[in-house]
Amino acid sequence: LARRALRGRVAAVTLADAPLSPAYVSSVSAIATRVRQQSRWLNAMSVEATVPQVRALESLAFVERVQLVRRYQRRREEVNVRAAAAEAVEPMRKASTLDYGTSFGQVNQIKVPFLHDLGLDGRGVVIAMLDAGYDNLAHPAFATTRIVATRDFVNGDLGVADGDVGEGSHGTATLSVIGGFQAGQIIGPAYAASYILAKTENTESETPVEEDNWAAAVEWAEALGADVVSSSLGYLTYDRPFPSYTAADMNGDTAISTRAADLAGERGVMVVNSAGNEGLDIRFNTLGAPADGQLVLAVGAVTSTGARASFSSVGPAADGRIKPDVAAQGVAVKIARPDGNPGYATANGTSFSCPLTAGVVALLVQANPSASVDQVFQALRSTASQANAPDNLLGYGIVDALAALRVVAPSRLP
User: Fold this and answer.
1) Do the bridges between strand 326-329 and strand 296-302 make them parallel or antiparallel, or are there none, so unpaired?
2) Counting Cβ atoms within 10 Å, is residue 64 exposed (0-12), middle (13-18) or buried (19+)?
3) Of 100, 145, 158, 356, which alpha carbon lies 20 to 30 A from 131's?
């Protein structure tokens, strides 16, 4: 409520926050084989049902429509699980009080060390991670990470590591990029923030997770007071025989996850999402929902030298908006090893440029908690490396955290 009042378009409790009618829930539950999720914001339930059951649900007077919850398949990012080798690091442009080790390049490219040296570290900001689960949280990178809530939307419990269904290496990697801290090894942009961990992705290809898990998780995180959402997931291509989304569906209004993300944005939550790893197609956009959202900051990927990564998805959104919005390093990003080993590895994908950028968003929120979603995202766009000539390959360009801070909170600068 405090966050909504501070910067939300929706500043208080509304009818959309009310639980579903118990009578409606009971009637649907009596017909369906299984109830999966309930959405207050979308005024909907997702269920497993046979064709006769669907027809019975459609006949209920209070049911407006029944639509297919599409299954999806995420293109897996490449993770190099060999020990991360020492690499050439560009010289620091100013003395830093922190030892980033070989993670320096990925944060320095977007000017994070400057904000750290100003005392910005994410403290007081709540970040929700929506991912495939989180293994190896005993890794040294997470020794000081503050985790305040966890929930598994795939298996229906509170454990977010490997469980009955799905494994958690991907979430471990993304969490280490945004919030890891081990001096001399890795320091994420928002290493002092508080974290909410939601497992929404089923990694087993035979039974991919349904998109409604993402929507349910973002509602849950918003209700817990999340300021920022970092989501390294995207929904586009589905297992047969289910129809896939098309480029035309990436219009900011169609996908369930996109609609839920924008509703979170209206409530003052900064939703940052990977653009996708589908590369360039000159015929149409290759985005994955919810990167197409009106209030979603979609993040593309570049190399350590600033060149666009060939796998990075491109826009524009189907309604003509420039997408992705901004970019950060997504090639050879240093991550904590998720396999029980206390060492480090490297990974490729917009899944890793996303948490780097979400970490910058958290620092800007810390610097000016009353700045709106629009103000923060526009500050990042207007100060990125190609803000004067944006395109649909990298949007407005590589993030410049220091320049964005000058726009969002100039008083924090000396």
Assistant:
1) parallel
2) exposed
3) 100
The C-alpha atoms of residue 314 and residue 64 are separated, in whole angstroms, by 35
Element holding 347 (H helix, E strand): strand 344-348
CB 404 within 8 A of CB 371: no
Q: Which of 61, 78, 22 is nearest to 348 (CA)?
A: 78
Q: Which one has a higher pLDDT value, 298 or 208? A: 298
What is d(CA 288, CA 361) in angstroms, rounded to the nearest whole number? 21
Q: Give the model's pLDDT for residue 249.
A: 87
Cβ contact 168:194 at 8 Å: no
The 3-state DSSP class for residue 219 equals helix
At residue 350, the 3 state secondary structure works out as helix
CB of 382 closer than 8 Å to CB of 179: no
- Please compute the mean of the pLDDT values over residues 132-160 and round it to a whole number: 91
Cβ(296)–Cβ(376) below 8 Å: no
Distance of alpha carbon 142 from alpha carbon 91, whole angstroms: 27
> What's the confidence (pLDDT) of residue 86?
39
Which whole number is the average pLDDT over 246-255? 89
Contact yes or no for 102/392 (Cβ under 8 A): no
* Residue 346: both structure tokens together: 């490297």
Q: Give tens-digit pLDDT for 158-199.
A: 888 876 666 668 899 999 999 999 999 999 999 999 999 999
Q: What is d(CA 26, CA 248) in angstroms, rounded to the nearest whole number?
A: 36
Structure tokens at 130: 């929506």
Burial of 17: CB neighbours in 10 Å, binned 0-12, 13-18, 19+: middle
Structure tokens at 203: 């990694």
Which of 29, 75, 21 is closest to 48 using CA atoms?
Answer: 29
Say if CB 148 and CB 195 are below 8 A apart. yes
